[in-house]
TrEMBL record:
This is cytokinin dehydrogenase. Residues 1-26 form the signal peptide. GO terms for biological process: cytokinin metabolic process. Its cofactor is FAD. It comes from Brassica napus (Rape). Keywords: FAD, Flavoprotein, Oxidoreductase, Signal.
């Protein structure tokens, strides 16, 4: 293991004296107790505490004792357990927080220390994102957001290959989950596109890891829900960047045709292969967002939804640049002929590559402007095995969702390939070659009552359990240990063993509620 000897600067005794939750009262008391040479920025003012106690989910409210705004990785390491010590652990918990876009307090540390990873990104030298001269990878401070990685890479004509739908998430935050979106079927999740990580374990060791160097930590941390260490740097794979995207939405009234075409598209390997594939549902009991479609077609789209009750929207993108421009129209033409799509149900936008990847930002602006961004978000995300997708559709989409008086938010629905995931990593997916990503991205507020939405989520999970549909939840939050054991299934033993190896005092990411 590559460890940094300077990490023993702070002894466990100092930690016990300075940082037990009861002693973290004000900046003044921290300054008095911490060795001056450390010069740590530890915030305990009400504003900092309140900001760190909430997240995007707007469901939980968990106060930390303090917020650390580190300027070097070594400062983060001071807050970990000193493994050389013979005395017991300091007792307070530590959670890294990227953008706090968790849903149910996963980045919280009750009474402990929340480490604001954006501080580290701001002070990273020479920059938060450093693109290698040949453009093959970028070294990124884990607190940087994906939008910053993209901007820095595009300035050099390159780009990461796989993205979340929303780019204002931290690199460390998505790598702790998986980082999925419409490129996953082709390139795998973000955790499959990392070459190397710097991690500070729960024992205070600063470790560089990769598939060859300390692989146990590397694979554990990817999708590891922050349990084994705090990622401070990630080496992200890059490729040549296109400049524009043909962004296409195709409407289906028939579920079988919709999924057949989705599955066909993710299995293509020739020049017809698309670069991005997702899908979503438009339902007559929900708000039908027609903003993608030309003004002249919007009424027709609404009528289609009302007539059929559900319209399935297949969403693909094909990237291009000046070299591929002459053939792009032909490729799209061949693609639609292959699928047998008629032009009246197909809509195309031609947009800059960056704008395509940053498309959810517009939705955020719209929701913020009408006060519907900072509301409770009881989102339910899951992976459903392909073999049961028809049963899922009948039971959940038609049986439960369509029978609601009104649905809220967006429902994502698209298949992806298992072969692009590495089973050594901590992230869990169904045990089938193809599985579907389903996201019920519901918002409470307006006419939607939080309890009703939670109740719907429970009924969805119960339906799957009772019908034997072996889903895996994503971005989940369980409070019972048996649910975690069930979630990790055959990986639970490895997951617990890695916890003992890298964070034996169980200090890290307590908000996930796995080992507390
Ligand atoms: P935080 O909420 O700050 O942290 C999440 C977890 O990771 C916590 O347990 C935290 O302790 C841990 N953590 C954070 N940083 C580090 C670090 N450096 N080292 C170790 N552990 C760390 N996800 C997708 O996969 N695909 C999507 O398309 C997608 N779209 C989204 C859209 C929106 C609008 C939102 C709000 C979320 C979306 N997500 C998506 C979910 C998102 O990926 C996760 O919530 C992710 O954790 C958010 O990153 P964050 O920086 O806000 O993490």
């Amino acid at each position: 293991m590559t460890t940094n000897p300077s990490l023993s600067i702070i002894t466990l005794m100092t930690l016990l004296m300075c940082l037990t939750p009861t002693l973290i009262k004000s900046e003044e008391s921290i300054d008095v107790l911490l060795p001056i040479s450390l010069n740590l920025t530890v915030l305990t003012d009400p504003f900092s505490i309140s900001a760190a106690s909430r997240d995007f989910g707007n469901i939980t409210d968990v106060n930390p004792g303090a917020v650390l705004c580190p300027s070097t990785p070594a400062e983060v390491a001071h807050f970990s357990y000193d493994s050389e010590s013979t005395t017991s652990s300091p007792g307070f918990k530590v959670a890294a927080r990227g953008q706090g876009h968790s849903l149910r307090g996963q980045a919280s540390a009750p009474g402990g220390v929340v480490v604001n990873m954006t501080c580290l990104a701001k002070t990273a030298k020479p920059a938060a994102v450093v693109v290698l001269a040949d453009g093959t990878y970028a070294d990124v401070a884990a607190g940087a957001m994906w939008v910053e990685v993209l901007e820095a890479a595009l300035a050099r004509g390159v780009s990461p290959v796989t993205f979340t739908d929303y780019l204002y998430l931290s690199v460390g935050g998505t790598l702790s989950n998986a980082g999925i979106g419409g490129q996953v079927f082709r390139h795998g999740p973000q955790i499959s596109n990392v070459h190397e990580l710097d991690v500070i374990t729960g024992k205070g060791d600063m470790v560089t890891c990769s598939p060859k160097l300390n692989p146990e930590l590397f694979y554990g941390v990817l999708g590891g829900l922050g349990q084994f260490g705090i990622i401070t740097r990630a080496r992200i794979a890059l490729e040549h960047a296109p400049t524009r995207a043909k962004w296409i939405r195709i409407l289906y009234s028939d579920f079988s045709a919709f999924t057949r075409d989705q599955e066909r598209l993710i299995s293509m390997a020739n020049d017809l292969r698309v670069d991005f594939l997702e899908g979503q549902l438009m339902m007559s009991n929900g708000i039908v967002d027609t903003s993608f479609f030309p003004l002249s077609d919007q009424t027709r789209v609404v009528s289609l939804v009302n007539d059929h009750r559900i319209i399935y929207v297949l969403e693909v993108a094909k990237y291009y640049d000046t070299t591929t421009l002459p053939i792009i129209e032909q490729v799209i033409d061949r693609l639609t002929r292959t699928l047998g799509i008629t032009s009246e149900f197909m809509f195309v936008q031609d947009v800059p590559y960056f704008d395509f990847l940053n498309r959810v930002r517009n939705e955020e602006d719209k929701l913020r402007s009408i006060g519907l961004w900072e509301v409770p978000h009881p989102w339910l995300n899951m992976f459903v095995p392909r073999s049961r997708i028809l049963d899922f559709h009948e039971g959940v989409i038609k049986g439960l969702l369509l029978n609601q008086t009104a649905t809220s938010g967006v429902t994502l629905f698209y298949p992806t390939n298992r072969k692009k995931w590495n089973n050594l990593m901590s992230a869990m997916i169904p045990n089938e070659d193809v599985f579907y990503v389903i996201g019920f991205l519901q918002s409470a507020g307006g006419s939607h009552n939080f309890e009703e939405l939670e109740n719907l989520n429970d009924r969805i999970i119960n339906f799957c359990d009772n019908s034997g549909i072996k889903i895996k939840e994503y971005l989940m939050h369980y409070t019972r240990k048996e649910d975690w054991i069930k979630h990790f299934g055959p990986k639970w033993n490895d997951f617990s063993r890695r916890k003992m190896m890298f964070d034996p005092e169980k200090l890290l990411s307590p908000g996930q509620d796995i080992f507390s």
